Every structure is written in C-alpha cells, then in structure tokens.
C-alpha cells in the first residue's frame, strides 16, 4: 500500500540515571538502557514518519522538564505529553505554567498504576479535569480494563474535555479478553471529544502474537471511534518487548487497517487526526 507521511502520536525516550522511572528494572531486558533521539531517528526516516509526540514515562514534573528540553532540541518532536498531579490544589497554576511552553501538548496521569481503580473520580481530580476542559488542555487516558468504566464516568462528567485513550486501554489480547472491554470502548466512543490511539497492542498480545490476534481489537476501535478520532502510535521502545523493530509495529498497523480504510481515511489515522488533536 502507499506509504503516506506519518505522525507517531506515542513514543518514549528516557535516561535511566534520572532515577524516577519506578517501573524500570534490569529484568526488562531491551528496555533497560537509555533511549534518546539519535536512537529513534533512523527508524523514523526509514518508515516515513515526519513528526512525533513524546510521552512521559515517569510521574514527576522533572520528567516533563526533561522531555520538553528534548523537544526543544529535536526538530521532529512536535510535542510532549507531560505529567502533573491531577489531585493537587495548585494544579490550575501548574497547568498554566506548562501551557506557556509551545511543546507542551497534553498531560497524562498514570491511572493504570493508581489505587483505587476509581481514583479519577476523586472530587479534586474531577474539578481539575473540568479546568482542563475550560483551558483547552488535552488529557491522555492511560488505563487498563479495571479503570476503564471509571474513566468513562469521569469523561461523561467533563463535557468538552479533549481526551485520547492510550493503547486501546490495554485489553488482555493474549487472554482473548473481549467484554467488558469492548462495551466500555463503545461507551467512550459515544462521548464526542474522546479519541483513541491505535497503539500498544503487541505488548498486550505477548511475544507470539500474529496480526490475526490484534485485528479484532484494532478494528473494533476503528469502527467505534471512526478515522476522524483514531490515530497511530508506536509505543516505541516499549513495543520492542514483543516486536522486532519500530518498522514492524508500523507495518503491522498498516496491514491490519488497510482493508478498512480508503486513502482519505488512511491519511486521517496515520497523520491528520493526530495533527489536529495535538495542534501540530
């Protein structure tokens, strides 16, 4: 199929000695090393990816500062998804300061790691989500299926908030999970300002995945949200836990979605929707 220009709306870069990646350990193998712009650039060039969104991997403001500095020095990084404490009384002031930076595009509390599962429904978190809607800030939904119904409720209570679900909310593809995941995704898609990243599937499917394993999940998201609200993300280098390369992830997404997209819809999923959502 034709190789249109691509925006990768979800990848990471990190430097381990910064010390705030609580999840990082030597047993993660390929991930337990530094990843910087020079590591990713050749893969982007080979794959026809022109711009990217760099996403936080630590729940600290120091991580956000680190990523914003990388963006300012790297011409193909179009924006940063950073982190702020959504349960902080000073959140509005902290958000205002961040939004002055042209590379700050969105923020992501790591809901998948926060207890209880309905953390997002805390009164102050909901208040700050409403403030985000008022200011036009973008919200990244990082959940697993147990947190997903609560994210649905929070977004229903926050009309106008532009939000995007990361990694299809991480369904257990290896275990062939379908419900309640599929129904909850339909509920999210019924909220007009919620988008979805076609990303993160290979790591949920395990090392022996095939395109047939991934296809039902990607297609369900595409049919629920439509190409105007779906966008591609590589989740590199995390995807290397289950994929051979950056190109493997992108080519797999192209192969899975090709039968369901004409040329216009393909450009939306792999470029235009992400560009519009992040204001690139």
From TrEMBL:
Pfam families (UniProt xref): Amidohydro_2 (PF04909)
GO molecular function: hydrolase activity
Amidohydrolase-related domain span: 7-280
Signal peptide per UniProt: none
Family affiliation: Belongs to the metallo-dependent hydrolases superfamily.
Xref: PANTHER family: AMIDOHYDROLASE, AMIDOHYDROLASE-RELATED DOMAIN-CONTAINING PROTEIN
Full protein name: L-fuconolactonase
Organism of this sequence: Silicimonas algicola
């Amino acid at each position: 199929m034709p190789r249109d220009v691509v925006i990768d709306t979800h990848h990471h870069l990190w430097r381990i000695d910064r010390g705030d990646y609580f999840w990082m350990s030597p047993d993660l193998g390929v991930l337990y090393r530094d990843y910087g712009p020079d590591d990713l650039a050749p893969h982007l060039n080979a794959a026809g990816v022109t711009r990217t969104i760099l996403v936080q991997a630590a729940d600290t403001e120091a991580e956000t500062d680190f990523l914003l500095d990388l963006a300012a020095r790297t011409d193909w990084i179009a924006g940063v998804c950073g982190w702020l404490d959504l349960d902080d009384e000073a959140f509005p002031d902290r958000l205002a300061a961040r939004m002055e930076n042209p590379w700050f595009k969105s923020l992501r509390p790591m809901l998948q790691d926060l207890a209880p599962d309905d953390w997002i429904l805390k009164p102050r978190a909901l208040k700050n989500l409403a403030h985000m809607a008022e200011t036009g800030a973008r919200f990244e939904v990082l959940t697993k299926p147990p947190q997903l119904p609560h994210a649905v409720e929070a977004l229903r209570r926050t009309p106008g908030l532009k939000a995007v679900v990361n990694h299809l909310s991480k369904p257990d593809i290896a275990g062939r999970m379908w419900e309640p995941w599929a129904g909850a995704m339909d509920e999210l898609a019924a909220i007009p300002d919620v988008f979805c990243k076609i990303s993160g599937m290979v790591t949920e499917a395990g090392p022996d995945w095939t395109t047939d394993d991934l296809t039902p999940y990607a297609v369900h998201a595409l049919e629920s949200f439509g190409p105007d609200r779906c966008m591609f993300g590589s989740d590199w280098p995390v995807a290397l836990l289950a994929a051979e390369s950056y190109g493997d992830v992108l080519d797999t997404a192209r192969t899975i979605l090709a039968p369901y997209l004409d040329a216009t819809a393909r450009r939306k999923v792999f470029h235009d929707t992400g560009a519009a959502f992040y204001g690139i």
